[in-house]
Amino acid sequence: MDTPVSGTPRLLLRLEGLALLAVSVVGYHALDASWPRFALLFLVPDASIVAYIAGPRAGAIAYNAVHTYFGPASLAALACLDVVPGEWPICLIWMAHIGMDRSLGLGLKFASAFQDTHLGRVGRIAPTA
């Protein structure tokens, strides 16, 4: 496994995630967007874990593709340019999801295993026999 972030930088990344979650929810509220829609779509990015069926490398690629800021930032730019008008709510839901994950310590995945993230190992570590 690659070396995850630790110490103060890890704490700052988690706090940054919490800030992103909060700002996204406040922005969503300011748009007066649909809260049932928010609830329905909030966990959609986690559907990417299905790619782990094809192995940890494919799973990490798929998971990271929808758990980086590039996707929602691109959608925000397109919404701002009116290429995809009305998609701000989707962008904010997506950013809120990423922010929640980061604040909980769920980082981007390494190809070694689902539990190996840039913010450290998540979940229980199996005992060695």
Describe the structure.
- There is one protein chain.
- This protein has 129 residues and is mostly helical.
- It has helices spanning 7-30, 35-41, 56-66, 70-80, 88-103, and strands spanning 116-117, 120-121.
- The chain has a two-stranded antiparallel sheet.
- Helix 1 packs antiparallel against helix 5 (88-103) and helix 4 runs antiparallel to helix 5 (88-103).
- The radius of gyration is 16 Å and the shape is globular.
- The mean pLDDT is 93.
Kindly summarize this structure in a few lines.
By secondary structure, this protein is mostly helical. It is built from 5 helices and 2 strands, in the order H-H-H-H-H-E-E. It has a two-stranded antiparallel sheet.
Strand content: under 5%
Terminal Cα span: 21 Å
Largest sheet: 2 strands, antiparallel
Mean pLDDT: 93
Q: Measured on Cα atoms, how large is the radius of gyration?
A: 16 Å
Shape: globular
Helix content: 40-55%
Order of strands across the main sheet? 1-2
List the total number of helices: 5
Low-confidence segments, given as residue ranges, are none
Structural class: mainly alpha
Number of strands: 2
Helix and strand run: HHHHHEE
Quaternary = single chain
Keywords:
mainly alpha; two-stranded antiparallel sheet; 53% helix
Task: Give the helix/strand layout.
Layout: H1 7-30, H2 35-41, H3 56-66, H4 70-80, H5 88-103, E1 116-117, E2 120-121
Antiparallel strand pairs: 1-2
Helix pairs in contact: 1-5, 4-5
